[in-house]
Amino acid sequence: MKKRNLAFLVGGVVFLLFPLVIHSDYYQHLVIIALMWVVVGSSWNLLAGYTGLVSFGHAIFFGTGAYTAGLFITKVGVSAWWGMMFGGMVSVVIGLIVGLICLRLRGPYFALATLAGGEIFRLAAINWESLTEGMVGILIIQTFQSKVPYYYIALAMTILCVYVIHLLMKAKWGYYFVSIREDQDAAESLGINTTLYKNVSLLTSAFFTGMAGAFYMNYMGFIDPEVVYSLHHISIMAILVGIVGGVATILGPAVGAFVMVGVQEAFRSALFGVGPKWISQAHALVFGLLVIFVIMFLANGIVGDWPKIKRTVLRIKEST
Amino acid sequence: MLKVNGIDVFYEDLQVLWDVTFDVKEKEILALVGANGAGKSTTIKTISSLLKPKRGTIEFNDMRLDHLPPHEIIGHGIVHVPEGRRLFPEMSVEENLIMGSLYGEAKAKRFETLEYVYGTFPILRERRKQMAGTLSGGEQQMLAVGRGLMSRPRLMMFDEPSLGLAPILVQLIFDLVKRINEQDVTVLLVEQNVMQTLAMCDRAYVLENGRIMLKGTGKELMTDDHVKEAYLGI
Q1: Do A182 and B95 touch (CB under 8 A)?
Q2: Which helix (H) or strand (E) holds B64?
Q3: I need a surface site. Which of A127, B39, B89, B227 has the fewest CB within 10 A?
Q4: How many domains does one find in chain A?
């Protein structure tokens, strides 16, 4: 227990001091993006990992949050930062509608329905030009020149999200969510209102994902439907972050986000400029191989299978 | 105590129960027996409100149950120990038990009841930190029964508690059901294991193709010619 507290303390200090020590915009940018993915991955994990409702459509909430923030400027004429709060709330409203339709379904059928839902939102955002500007997208002027304020906003958002999920999972809610994942009918017959708690999980997940989307709008300054409602850039990435890090663990998505953003960047930049050019075109392929590797050898993700990783490393050390 | 009045139950368009009527009296063991597919589990699921009857009513101490959502049934003192145990495999034994006592009186007296359950099943106390999925079949069945007891039920419904257990464990589970009944819990038992069930119950109904064919005390039915021929192979 003591060792764990120490690790958290060291981790906290590293994250607090990071932008003051590392001045490179490039590395600050990568960590900001990774922190944003911690939020999306953790939200996805609450719904999929703990409650057993595997969503293939988290872009619905991410995109809705991003567009809420963008529309605050283009339609309402106030700062896009209002989107950080209202983006989450609008995502909750959308989540209620999505839940009304998709939560009637279980297992793979839920996954397929959310997949279709994500595509519906993407196509709607492309074609509803009077509201969303369609494929032209929304361009805003960023508030800050420096990356440091964005870094601390992202860090605060991440800590809030992970801490809220941690508290939920420690309270009775956590047991309700897991019981729904393990056996929904048994949970129902033990007196758990499964419809209510599935909605609680979905809406909490939608709220934080929407908030992350709004942050993305503010930070990147540009969105269009193919970016924020993207199936493979958002919905699938959310799943990968969860699976690689470890589903149904608090720290899994956090680790997964840093690994996935790192891998994505390494291949996008052709191994940071030292590798051959063609590698940058292979990043989708590498993602696929990585998922196969994780599912075959680390089915519980990096965090979930940490003891197994430690054992393997020890064995390799002994044999050499 | 529990009155089932002429229920017709459908899965989509397929009718599986036809005008099923029976009642469970306070403090007795009532058995519903019959072959595979006779509608026994359907009956118990309908009482739990997991299925809704198209016609007929279900009353518990003069209160209608058939319009309640399934998660409210347990609050009225009825617990369903489902077929195939339906535990939460990645929760510990103790967490599974606590999940049985979420509301009202059961929650207030949770630790008292937990002691009682551990007293009844000492093996569960030994394994209380272990994941439920790692228990043996018999232990899992005990845990399912224990989880049911945690809600301090007045009526306990068992759906095929002997399913998939070795013959020696089957007898053990039946002894347990008797012991629970002696603590003033009314029991509704659904079983395919006709001989052993008739030997231990107070009264029984025989279900065939979704209809009640026979009723009587356990002893009467054991000597009934039709039961002998169809179920006991004598």
Answers
A1: no
A2: strand B63-64
A3: A127
A4: 1
Whether ipTM > 0.95 holds is no
The residues with which B3 forms a beta bridge, in sequence order, are: B23, B59
Q: By CA distance, what is A182's nearest residue in B? A: B88
A212 touches A62 (CB < 8 A): yes
The answer to whether the Cβ–Cβ distance between A191 and B151 falls below 8 Å is: yes
| DSSP per-residue string spanning B80-142 | EE-TT----TTSBHHHHHHTT--SHHHHHTHHHHHHHHHHH-HHHHHTTTSBGGGS-HHHHHH
Copy the structure tokens of residue A77. Answer: 């004429």
- CA distances (Å), origin A75, targets A66, A140, A144, A212, B43: 14, 12, 22, 21, 58
pLDDT at B84: 83
Q: How far A2 CA lies from chain B's nearest CA (Å)? A: 22
Q: Which residues of B touch A (CB under 8 A)?
A: 48, 50, 69-75, 79-80, 82, 86-91, 95, 98-100, 102-103, 147, 151
> A195 burial class (0-12, 13-18, 19+ CB within 10 angstroms)?
middle
Residue B80 neighbours by CB under 8 Å, 6+ apart: A189, B44, B45, B47, B48, B73, B148, B157, B159
What is the residue whose two structure tokens read 């003051």?
A20
- The DSSP symbol for A136 reads G
Residues present in chain B in total: 234
**Which residue range(s) make up the domain with A208?**
28-319
- Sign of the CA dihedral with A170 first, then A173, A178, and A179 last: positive
A30-49 per-position pLDDT tens digit:
999 999 999 999 999 999 99
Asked if A28 contacts A147 with a C-beta cutoff of 8 angstroms, the reply is yes
Q: What is the reported pTM?
A: 0.85
Query: Is A184 within a domain?
Result: yes
* Structural domain contains residue A102: yes
Alpha helix (H) residue ranges in chain B: 40-47, 70-73, 93-98, 104-108, 110-120, 122-126, 137-149, 167-182, 194-200, 218-223, 225-227
- Is residue A72 included in any domain, yes or no? yes
CA nearest to B151 within chain A: A190
Distance CA A97, CA A17 (A): 41
CATH number at residue A63: 1.10.3470
Q: What is the CA radius of gyration of chain B?
A: 17
Q: Cα–Cα distance between B212 and B39 in angstroms, integer?
A: 10
Strands (E), chain A: 138-139, 222-223
C-alpha distance from A194 to closest chain B C-alpha (Å) = 8
Collect the ranges in chain A with pLDDT lower than 50: none
